[in-house]
Amino acid sequence: MSITIQVRFYAGLAQRAGCREATLELADGVALPDPRVADALAAVAGAFPTLRGMLDRVAVALDDTIVHREHPLRAGALLELLPPVSGGIDLLASPSRWLSESPLDLGELLAQTEDPAGGGLVIFSGDVRDHNQGRGGVTAITYEAHPSIAARVLASIEDEVCARFDVLRCRIQHRTGRVEVGQASVLVVCRAAHRAAAFEGARHAIDTLKERTPIWKLEHYDDGSSRYLDGTPLSPESDPGSEPR
Question: Which Gene3D superfamilies match (predicted)?
């Protein structure tokens, strides 16, 4: 007896695996007839030895939701393997509200956050710089995201900022694709009645999205080389769409 599953790799995992997707067969030796996500990861390790040292830190998404290792696995499932982040879904709007392949439009975010009660406005722009971690010669960064989960996480951070810091309006938008040095990769806009709340909310938004959002960075250099940046492992708790354990 065996079942077949599909596996999709993101960012550095795809680079190491040498492919974006693979079809794997789980045979009798992996806890059939009740396989779990952990069994699929064991099969991935067997099929892709170059990934063995990375799989302990990956998050696994099933049906656009990050799940635990013991989550049941069905035949034909699509498992998406998400490396640590360097930076039928229940979205209220298209992922394009939070993710953009085009240059970010600050004017649009300002219009979306207009509020006559807002006496304090804080704007944070995260721009690509020409150096990182002691290395110069950075020319651009390519951002890759899991669209539905990333959008859901960013939407939840907006709500969290408003609830925790007495912020009236919060909007976050992040670039995907190649972003050149000097261009904005992320914008955060917070409006509150007073400046302190707006500053605190904006800081929380940018710090939190770097920890929770499945967005990865491929850094490009002036010598023609590039590398994926390591980051924080994701967990089911980082995805507001995940079921409680």
Answer: 3.10.20.30, Molybdopterin biosynthesis MoaE subunit (3.90.1170.40)
